[in-house]
Amino acid sequence: MAISGAALLEAAVTQALLSRLRESKTGNRELFRGNAPLSSFSSITQMAFALNVFGKEYRHDIDGVRHIRNAFAHSPKELRFATKAISDVCDTFYALRVAPKFNEAPTTARDKFSFTVRTVGMFLILASAELMTPLKSDLP
């Protein structure tokens, strides 16, 4: 869940960033491959934030998801969402403020993580499809 959820969110951030870049014959994908400047989730997030694709609260939640992904991927010991360090990060997600608008009330760290990935990802996908104005402000 942590790794696949982060991968989905990374794809949404990438798409939102691509939608703001000048069009090229290759679709700018070369910027995201191998050792290119935007080849990591961190650098993609930094660039999208610098280009005002989203605000501080989105950045906080995206970085939190990335940190959790990295912890699960690189920890020598078994982690769970109930692990204090992981659940503490999940408790800080700004996206949770909109949960009542979706008739959701995530209580476990895993549910908070999942809700945040789905919510932030949805807003990024909508923005990249130009169905919404750019996410210059923070979460509603």
UniProtKB/TrEMBL annotation:
Signal peptide interval: none
Gene Ontology terms: biological process: negative regulation of DNA-templated transcription
Xref: InterPro entries: MtlR-like, MtlR-like_sf
SUPFAM superfamilies in the record: MtlR-like (SSF158668)
Name by which UniProt lists this protein: DUF4145 domain-containing protein
